[in-house]
Amino acid sequence: MRNLSRVTTLFIAISLTACSEPPVDRGLEKYIAGIKAIDNHAHPMLVVAKGAPADTDYDALPLDAIPPGAAPLRLRPGHPDWVAATNATKDVAGQKTELALDRAGIDIMLANRVAMGPSLAPPRFLWVSFADPLMLPLDGKLESARTPDTRSLYALETKLLRRYMRDLGVTKLPASLDEYVRTVLTPTLERQKKAGAVAVKFEAAYLRALDFDDPDPALARLVYSRFAGGGVPGRTEYKTLQDYLFRVIAREAGRLGMSVHIHSTSGAGSFYSARGADPYMLESAMNDSTLRGTSFVIIHGGWPLSAQTLAMMGRGKVYADISMTDVIAGPSALSDVLRTWLEAWPERVLFGTDAFDGGPGQTWEAGAYLASNLARRSLGLALTRMMREGSITRMRAEELARMVMRENALALYGLGARKAP
Ligand SMILES: [Zn+2]
Protein backbone atom coordinates (compact mmCIF):
# COMPACT_ATOMS: atom_id res chain seq x y z
CA MET A 1 0.00 0.00 0.00
CA ARG A 2 2.82 2.31 0.98
CA ASN A 3 4.71 1.44 -2.20
CA LEU A 4 1.65 1.97 -4.30
CA SER A 5 1.07 5.44 -2.89
CA ARG A 6 4.72 6.28 -3.53
CA VAL A 7 4.25 5.19 -7.16
CA THR A 8 1.08 7.28 -7.37
CA THR A 9 2.88 10.33 -5.98
CA LEU A 10 5.67 9.84 -8.48
CA PHE A 11 3.18 9.52 -11.33
CA ILE A 12 1.42 12.71 -10.27
CA ALA A 13 4.77 14.51 -10.10
CA ILE A 14 5.69 13.36 -13.62
CA SER A 15 2.26 14.33 -14.95
CA LEU A 16 2.53 17.78 -13.39
CA THR A 17 5.95 18.29 -14.98
CA ALA A 18 4.59 17.23 -18.36
CA CYS A 19 1.56 19.49 -17.98
CA SER A 20 3.54 22.50 -16.89
CA GLU A 21 5.72 22.31 -19.98
CA PRO A 22 4.03 24.55 -22.58
CA PRO A 23 3.30 22.92 -25.97
CA VAL A 24 5.37 25.64 -27.66
CA ASP A 25 8.79 26.42 -26.19
CA ARG A 26 8.60 29.99 -24.84
CA GLY A 27 11.91 31.12 -26.29
CA LEU A 28 11.08 29.70 -29.70
CA GLU A 29 7.59 31.22 -29.59
CA LYS A 30 9.08 34.66 -29.02
CA TYR A 31 11.62 34.13 -31.78
CA ILE A 32 8.95 33.08 -34.31
CA ALA A 33 6.72 36.01 -33.35
CA GLY A 34 9.57 38.38 -34.24
CA ILE A 35 10.15 37.12 -37.79
CA LYS A 36 8.99 39.58 -40.46
CA ALA A 37 7.21 37.25 -42.85
CA ILE A 38 6.89 36.98 -46.62
CA ASP A 39 3.27 36.07 -47.37
CA ASN A 40 3.33 33.88 -50.48
CA HIS A 41 -0.36 34.22 -51.36
CA ALA A 42 -3.10 36.75 -50.54
CA HIS A 43 -5.77 38.98 -52.10
CA PRO A 44 -5.39 42.40 -50.44
CA MET A 45 -7.86 45.12 -51.39
CA LEU A 46 -7.15 48.57 -52.83
CA VAL A 47 -7.97 51.51 -50.60
CA VAL A 48 -10.86 53.16 -52.43
CA ALA A 49 -11.99 56.75 -51.83
CA LYS A 50 -15.60 57.31 -50.75
CA GLY A 51 -17.90 57.37 -53.79
CA ALA A 52 -15.24 55.80 -56.08
CA PRO A 53 -16.03 52.49 -57.82
CA ALA A 54 -15.43 49.38 -55.71
CA ASP A 55 -12.28 47.29 -56.17
CA THR A 56 -13.25 44.35 -58.42
CA ASP A 57 -9.74 43.24 -59.40
CA TYR A 58 -8.96 41.33 -56.18
CA ASP A 59 -9.50 37.92 -57.83
CA ALA A 60 -10.06 36.56 -61.35
CA LEU A 61 -12.60 34.07 -60.03
CA PRO A 62 -14.19 35.72 -56.97
CA LEU A 63 -16.23 33.38 -54.78
CA ASP A 64 -19.31 35.56 -55.06
CA ALA A 65 -19.47 34.53 -58.73
CA ILE A 66 -20.56 31.01 -57.75
CA PRO A 67 -23.62 29.79 -55.82
CA PRO A 68 -22.86 30.06 -52.08
CA GLY A 69 -21.50 26.87 -50.50
CA ALA A 70 -20.94 25.91 -46.86
CA ALA A 71 -17.69 27.06 -45.26
CA PRO A 72 -15.60 24.83 -42.98
CA LEU A 73 -15.88 25.65 -39.27
CA ARG A 74 -12.81 27.85 -38.94
CA LEU A 75 -13.77 29.94 -41.96
CA ARG A 76 -17.24 30.85 -40.72
CA PRO A 77 -17.83 34.45 -39.76
CA GLY A 78 -18.55 34.65 -36.06
CA HIS A 79 -15.93 31.99 -35.20
CA PRO A 80 -14.20 33.26 -32.03
CA ASP A 81 -10.83 33.41 -33.84
CA TRP A 82 -12.30 35.75 -36.46
CA VAL A 83 -13.95 37.93 -33.83
CA ALA A 84 -10.61 38.28 -32.02
CA ALA A 85 -8.73 38.98 -35.29
CA THR A 86 -11.34 41.56 -36.33
CA ASN A 87 -10.98 43.33 -32.98
CA ALA A 88 -7.18 43.25 -33.23
CA THR A 89 -7.23 44.89 -36.69
CA LYS A 90 -10.23 47.23 -36.39
CA ASP A 91 -8.08 50.35 -36.37
CA VAL A 92 -6.03 49.36 -39.45
CA ALA A 93 -8.78 47.86 -41.67
CA GLY A 94 -9.44 50.01 -44.76
CA GLN A 95 -6.55 52.33 -43.81
CA LYS A 96 -3.03 52.53 -45.17
CA THR A 97 -2.35 48.98 -46.39
CA GLU A 98 1.16 48.84 -44.90
CA LEU A 99 -0.33 49.19 -41.41
CA ALA A 100 -2.23 45.93 -41.86
CA LEU A 101 1.00 44.17 -42.86
CA ASP A 102 2.79 45.60 -39.83
CA ARG A 103 0.00 44.41 -37.54
CA ALA A 104 0.28 40.85 -38.93
CA GLY A 105 4.10 40.81 -38.77
CA ILE A 106 4.30 40.64 -42.57
CA ASP A 107 7.12 42.37 -44.43
CA ILE A 108 6.05 41.53 -48.01
CA MET A 109 2.68 40.27 -49.25
CA LEU A 110 2.38 38.63 -52.67
CA ALA A 111 -0.89 40.04 -53.99
CA ASN A 112 -2.70 37.65 -56.31
CA ARG A 113 -4.88 40.09 -58.24
CA VAL A 114 -6.03 40.92 -61.76
CA ALA A 115 -4.32 44.30 -61.40
CA MET A 116 -2.52 46.30 -58.72
CA GLY A 117 -2.98 49.94 -57.71
CA PRO A 118 -1.31 52.83 -55.88
CA SER A 119 -2.25 51.54 -52.40
CA LEU A 120 -0.73 48.12 -53.17
CA ALA A 121 2.76 49.00 -54.32
CA PRO A 122 6.26 47.53 -54.02
CA PRO A 123 8.29 46.92 -51.99
CA ARG A 124 5.64 45.77 -49.49
CA PHE A 125 3.22 44.34 -52.10
CA LEU A 126 4.41 42.25 -55.07
CA TRP A 127 2.13 41.17 -57.90
CA VAL A 128 1.06 37.64 -58.83
CA SER A 129 -1.02 37.80 -62.04
CA PHE A 130 -3.49 35.26 -63.46
CA ALA A 131 -2.52 32.84 -66.24
CA ASP A 132 -5.71 30.78 -66.71
CA PRO A 133 -7.26 33.07 -69.37
CA LEU A 134 -4.24 32.49 -71.64
CA MET A 135 -4.95 28.74 -71.49
CA LEU A 136 -8.61 29.23 -72.49
CA PRO A 137 -8.81 31.07 -75.82
CA LEU A 138 -11.73 29.05 -77.28
CA ASP A 139 -15.44 28.77 -76.50
CA GLY A 140 -15.70 26.58 -73.38
CA LYS A 141 -19.47 26.12 -73.58
CA LEU A 142 -19.41 22.31 -73.27
CA GLU A 143 -17.00 22.26 -70.33
CA SER A 144 -18.68 25.18 -68.59
CA ALA A 145 -22.08 23.42 -68.70
CA ARG A 146 -20.64 20.84 -66.30
CA THR A 147 -21.63 22.49 -62.98
CA PRO A 148 -23.39 25.65 -61.72
CA ASP A 149 -19.91 26.94 -60.70
CA THR A 150 -18.15 26.44 -64.02
CA ARG A 151 -21.02 28.13 -65.87
CA SER A 152 -20.12 31.55 -64.47
CA LEU A 153 -16.39 30.97 -63.99
CA TYR A 154 -15.56 30.18 -67.64
CA ALA A 155 -17.31 33.40 -68.69
CA LEU A 156 -15.06 35.37 -66.31
CA GLU A 157 -11.94 33.84 -67.88
CA THR A 158 -13.14 34.76 -71.38
CA LYS A 159 -13.72 38.34 -70.21
CA LEU A 160 -10.25 38.53 -68.70
CA LEU A 161 -8.60 37.21 -71.88
CA ARG A 162 -10.40 39.97 -73.83
CA ARG A 163 -8.96 42.47 -71.33
CA TYR A 164 -5.45 41.06 -71.79
CA MET A 165 -5.88 41.28 -75.58
CA ARG A 166 -7.21 44.85 -75.34
CA ASP A 167 -4.14 45.79 -73.30
CA LEU A 168 -2.02 44.56 -76.23
CA GLY A 169 -4.20 46.20 -78.89
CA VAL A 170 -5.21 42.80 -80.31
CA THR A 171 -8.86 42.85 -81.40
CA LYS A 172 -9.46 39.22 -82.38
CA LEU A 173 -7.90 35.81 -81.91
CA PRO A 174 -5.10 35.14 -84.44
CA ALA A 175 -5.83 32.36 -86.93
CA SER A 176 -3.02 29.98 -85.91
CA LEU A 177 -1.86 28.66 -82.55
CA ASP A 178 1.75 29.72 -83.07
CA GLU A 179 0.57 33.23 -83.89
CA TYR A 180 -1.61 33.24 -80.76
CA VAL A 181 1.40 32.27 -78.64
CA ARG A 182 3.60 34.88 -80.35
CA THR A 183 1.15 37.81 -80.34
CA VAL A 184 -1.03 37.21 -77.24
CA LEU A 185 0.34 34.64 -74.79
CA THR A 186 4.01 35.60 -74.63
CA PRO A 187 3.46 39.39 -74.85
CA THR A 188 0.91 39.21 -72.00
CA LEU A 189 3.36 37.36 -69.75
CA GLU A 190 6.12 39.80 -70.73
CA ARG A 191 3.82 42.71 -69.96
CA GLN A 192 2.98 41.27 -66.53
CA LYS A 193 6.64 40.65 -65.79
CA LYS A 194 7.46 44.23 -66.79
CA ALA A 195 4.71 45.49 -64.48
CA GLY A 196 6.42 43.72 -61.57
CA ALA A 197 4.80 40.26 -61.44
CA VAL A 198 7.01 37.72 -59.63
CA ALA A 199 4.69 34.79 -60.42
CA VAL A 200 1.61 33.78 -62.40
CA LYS A 201 -1.24 31.88 -60.82
CA PHE A 202 -3.51 29.11 -62.10
CA GLU A 203 -6.93 28.82 -60.49
CA ALA A 204 -7.61 26.00 -62.96
CA ALA A 205 -8.82 23.58 -60.28
CA TYR A 206 -12.06 25.57 -60.14
CA LEU A 207 -12.54 24.88 -63.85
CA ARG A 208 -11.05 21.47 -64.64
CA ALA A 209 -8.84 18.69 -63.28
CA LEU A 210 -5.13 19.48 -62.91
CA ASP A 211 -4.04 16.58 -65.15
CA PHE A 212 -2.10 18.63 -67.68
CA ASP A 213 -0.96 15.98 -70.18
CA ASP A 214 1.71 16.35 -72.83
CA PRO A 215 -0.28 16.25 -76.09
CA ASP A 216 0.93 16.11 -79.68
CA PRO A 217 1.50 19.78 -80.63
CA ALA A 218 0.09 19.08 -84.12
CA LEU A 219 -3.24 18.07 -82.55
CA ALA A 220 -3.31 21.22 -80.38
CA ARG A 221 -2.63 23.38 -83.48
CA LEU A 222 -5.44 21.66 -85.33
CA VAL A 223 -7.98 22.23 -82.53
CA TYR A 224 -6.99 25.89 -82.25
CA SER A 225 -7.13 26.73 -85.95
CA ARG A 226 -10.44 24.92 -86.35
CA PHE A 227 -12.22 26.89 -83.59
CA ALA A 228 -10.34 30.20 -83.29
CA GLY A 229 -12.85 31.83 -85.64
CA GLY A 230 -15.89 30.41 -83.83
CA GLY A 231 -17.64 27.18 -82.92
CA VAL A 232 -17.44 25.03 -79.80
CA PRO A 233 -14.68 22.41 -79.42
CA GLY A 234 -15.52 19.07 -77.84
CA ARG A 235 -14.32 18.60 -74.24
CA THR A 236 -11.49 16.22 -75.18
CA GLU A 237 -10.39 18.45 -78.06
CA TYR A 238 -10.35 21.53 -75.86
CA LYS A 239 -8.43 19.69 -73.11
CA THR A 240 -5.73 18.82 -75.67
CA LEU A 241 -5.27 22.51 -76.47
CA GLN A 242 -5.40 23.60 -72.80
CA ASP A 243 -2.81 21.00 -71.79
CA TYR A 244 -0.51 22.22 -74.55
CA LEU A 245 -0.98 25.86 -73.57
CA PHE A 246 -0.41 25.13 -69.86
CA ARG A 247 3.06 23.89 -70.73
CA VAL A 248 3.78 26.84 -73.01
CA ILE A 249 2.74 29.26 -70.26
CA ALA A 250 4.80 27.42 -67.62
CA ARG A 251 7.86 27.35 -69.91
CA GLU A 252 7.54 31.03 -70.83
CA ALA A 253 7.01 32.03 -67.18
CA GLY A 254 10.19 30.16 -66.28
CA ARG A 255 12.11 31.86 -69.09
CA LEU A 256 10.96 35.24 -67.78
CA GLY A 257 11.92 34.37 -64.20
CA MET A 258 8.37 34.09 -62.89
CA SER A 259 7.18 31.19 -60.71
CA VAL A 260 3.98 29.32 -61.49
CA HIS A 261 1.45 29.16 -58.65
CA ILE A 262 -1.21 26.43 -58.78
CA HIS A 263 -4.26 26.40 -56.52
CA SER A 264 -4.65 22.96 -54.95
CA THR A 265 -6.87 22.23 -51.96
CA SER A 266 -10.23 20.69 -51.17
CA GLY A 267 -11.81 23.86 -52.56
CA ALA A 268 -14.77 26.18 -52.19
CA GLY A 269 -18.36 26.13 -53.34
CA SER A 270 -20.65 23.13 -53.65
CA PHE A 271 -19.54 21.67 -56.98
CA TYR A 272 -15.74 21.81 -56.78
CA SER A 273 -13.82 18.63 -57.66
CA ALA A 274 -11.45 17.80 -54.80
CA ARG A 275 -10.18 14.81 -56.76
CA GLY A 276 -9.40 17.03 -59.74
CA ALA A 277 -7.28 19.23 -57.44
CA ASP A 278 -5.23 16.31 -56.05
CA PRO A 279 -1.51 17.28 -56.22
CA TYR A 280 -0.87 13.89 -57.88
CA MET A 281 -2.83 15.23 -60.88
CA LEU A 282 0.18 17.51 -61.47
CA GLU A 283 2.58 14.60 -61.81
CA SER A 284 2.79 14.68 -65.62
CA ALA A 285 3.64 18.41 -65.65
CA MET A 286 6.03 18.16 -62.69
CA ASN A 287 7.87 15.30 -64.45
CA ASP A 288 8.25 17.25 -67.72
CA SER A 289 11.99 17.71 -68.17
CA THR A 290 11.38 20.72 -70.46
CA LEU A 291 9.75 22.56 -67.52
CA ARG A 292 12.69 22.18 -65.14
CA GLY A 293 13.56 25.84 -65.63
CA THR A 294 10.26 26.79 -63.99
CA SER A 295 9.57 26.81 -60.26
CA PHE A 296 6.08 25.75 -59.19
CA VAL A 297 4.28 26.50 -55.93
CA ILE A 298 1.39 24.30 -54.80
CA ILE A 299 -0.83 26.96 -53.25
CA HIS A 300 -2.66 25.90 -50.04
CA GLY A 301 -0.27 22.91 -49.93
CA GLY A 302 -2.84 20.60 -51.52
CA TRP A 303 -4.63 20.37 -48.15
CA PRO A 304 -5.83 17.90 -46.95
CA LEU A 305 -3.68 15.83 -49.36
CA SER A 306 -0.42 17.09 -47.88
CA ALA A 307 1.32 13.72 -48.36
CA GLN A 308 0.74 13.96 -52.12
CA THR A 309 2.20 17.48 -52.02
CA LEU A 310 5.23 16.08 -50.19
CA ALA A 311 5.76 13.59 -53.03
CA MET A 312 5.59 16.39 -55.63
CA MET A 313 8.15 18.48 -53.71
CA GLY A 314 10.79 16.01 -54.83
CA ARG A 315 10.37 16.90 -58.52
CA GLY A 316 12.27 19.74 -60.17
CA LYS A 317 11.66 22.99 -58.32
CA VAL A 318 8.35 22.37 -56.57
CA TYR A 319 7.37 24.35 -53.47
CA ALA A 320 4.25 24.41 -51.29
CA ASP A 321 2.68 27.14 -49.21
CA ILE A 322 0.36 26.89 -46.20
CA SER A 323 -1.95 29.76 -47.20
CA MET A 324 -5.57 29.18 -46.09
CA THR A 325 -4.56 25.80 -44.63
CA ASP A 326 -3.24 27.68 -41.59
CA VAL A 327 -6.80 28.90 -40.98
CA ILE A 328 -8.82 25.84 -42.07
CA ALA A 329 -6.71 23.03 -40.60
CA GLY A 330 -5.84 24.68 -37.30
CA PRO A 331 -2.50 24.52 -35.48
CA SER A 332 -2.56 20.91 -34.31
CA ALA A 333 -3.19 19.34 -37.73
CA LEU A 334 -0.99 21.86 -39.55
CA SER A 335 1.90 21.24 -37.16
CA ASP A 336 1.82 17.55 -38.19
CA VAL A 337 1.92 18.56 -41.86
CA LEU A 338 4.77 21.03 -41.30
CA ARG A 339 6.76 18.49 -39.38
CA THR A 340 6.46 15.91 -42.18
CA TRP A 341 7.40 18.45 -44.85
CA LEU A 342 10.28 19.94 -42.85
CA GLU A 343 11.82 16.51 -42.26
CA ALA A 344 12.16 16.08 -46.05
CA TRP A 345 12.11 19.41 -47.94
CA PRO A 346 12.77 22.27 -45.49
CA GLU A 347 13.82 24.64 -48.30
CA ARG A 348 10.53 24.16 -50.18
CA VAL A 349 7.99 25.21 -47.51
CA LEU A 350 6.48 28.71 -47.63
CA PHE A 351 4.27 30.74 -45.32
CA GLY A 352 1.08 32.25 -46.76
CA THR A 353 -2.25 33.64 -45.57
CA ASP A 354 -4.73 33.77 -48.51
CA ALA A 355 -6.06 36.91 -46.79
CA PHE A 356 -9.14 38.00 -48.76
CA ASP A 357 -12.14 40.24 -48.32
CA GLY A 358 -15.02 38.15 -46.98
CA GLY A 359 -17.25 41.01 -45.81
CA PRO A 360 -17.35 43.10 -42.62
CA GLY A 361 -16.56 40.27 -40.14
CA GLN A 362 -13.81 38.93 -42.39
CA THR A 363 -11.67 41.73 -43.79
CA TRP A 364 -8.41 40.83 -45.54
CA GLU A 365 -6.61 42.66 -42.75
CA ALA A 366 -8.19 40.36 -40.13
CA GLY A 367 -7.48 37.34 -42.35
CA ALA A 368 -3.79 38.22 -42.62
CA TYR A 369 -3.55 38.73 -38.87
CA LEU A 370 -5.37 35.48 -38.06
CA ALA A 371 -3.48 33.30 -40.57
CA SER A 372 -0.14 34.79 -39.52
CA ASN A 373 -0.79 33.98 -35.87
CA LEU A 374 -2.10 30.48 -36.57
CA ALA A 375 0.84 29.71 -38.87
CA ARG A 376 3.34 30.83 -36.23
CA ARG A 377 1.55 28.71 -33.62
CA SER A 378 1.63 25.65 -35.90
CA LEU A 379 5.30 26.14 -36.69
CA GLY A 380 6.06 26.58 -32.98
CA LEU A 381 4.29 23.32 -32.14
CA ALA A 382 6.12 21.39 -34.88
CA LEU A 383 9.59 22.76 -34.09
CA THR A 384 9.14 22.38 -30.31
CA ARG A 385 8.32 18.71 -30.75
CA MET A 386 11.31 18.18 -33.03
CA MET A 387 13.55 19.98 -30.55
CA ARG A 388 12.28 18.06 -27.50
CA GLU A 389 12.68 14.75 -29.32
CA GLY A 390 16.27 15.73 -29.98
CA SER A 391 16.02 15.62 -33.79
CA ILE A 392 17.05 19.29 -34.12
CA THR A 393 18.91 21.84 -32.00
CA ARG A 394 17.41 25.17 -30.91
CA MET A 395 19.60 26.92 -33.43
CA ARG A 396 18.31 24.70 -36.25
CA ALA A 397 14.71 25.22 -35.04
CA GLU A 398 15.19 28.99 -35.33
CA GLU A 399 16.75 28.58 -38.76
CA LEU A 400 13.84 26.43 -39.97
CA ALA A 401 11.38 29.02 -38.65
CA ARG A 402 13.16 31.79 -40.59
CA MET A 403 13.19 29.62 -43.72
CA VAL A 404 9.43 28.91 -43.65
CA MET A 405 8.32 32.40 -42.66
CA ARG A 406 10.75 34.39 -44.80
CA GLU A 407 13.99 33.09 -46.24
CA ASN A 408 12.68 30.38 -48.60
CA ALA A 409 10.49 32.99 -50.31
CA LEU A 410 13.34 35.50 -50.49
CA ALA A 411 15.42 32.86 -52.29
CA LEU A 412 12.60 31.71 -54.58
CA TYR A 413 11.68 35.21 -55.77
CA GLY A 414 15.25 36.51 -55.86
CA LEU A 415 14.62 39.07 -53.11
CA GLY A 416 17.70 37.94 -51.22
CA ALA A 417 19.26 41.34 -50.71
CA ARG A 418 16.26 42.66 -48.77
CA LYS A 419 16.89 43.39 -45.09
CA ALA A 420 14.15 42.74 -42.52
CA PRO A 421 12.54 46.05 -41.49
ZN1 LIG B 1 -6.31 32.72 -52.94
Characteristic key phrases:
421 residues; alpha/beta; 8-stranded parallel sheet; 16 helices; globular; binds zinc ion
Question: How does this model look, in words?
Answer:
The protein has 421 residues and is of the alpha/beta class. It has a single domain, classed as Alpha-Beta Barrel (TIM Barrel), CATH 3.20.20. The protein contains 16 helices and eight strands. An eight-stranded parallel sheet has the order 1-2-3-4-5-6-7-8, sandwiched between helices. β5 (259-263), α11 and β6 form a beta-alpha-beta unit. α14 (331-344) crosses α15 (364-388). The longest helix has 25 residues, at 364-388. It binds zinc ion. The site of zinc ion (ZN) has 4 residues, from loops.
Spatial separation of the terminal alpha carbons: 63 Å
User: Which structural class is indicated by helix and strand composition?
Assistant: alpha/beta
CATH topology descriptor = TIM Barrel
Estimate the strand proportion: 5-15%
Q: What is the topological layout?
A:
Layout: H1 2-20, H2 26-33, E1 37-42, H3 80-89, H4 97-104, E2 106-112, E3 125-130, H5 132-135, H6 141-144, H7 148-168, H8 177-194, E4 197-202, H9 217-227, H10 235-255, E5 259-263, H11 283-286, E6 295-299, H12 306-312, E7 317-321, H13 325-328, H14 331-344, E8 349-350, H15 364-388, H16 394-412
Parallel strand pairs: 1-2, 2-3, 3-4, 4-5, 5-6, 6-7, 7-8
Helix pairs in contact: 2-15, 3-15, 4-15, 8-10, 9-10, 14-15, 15-16
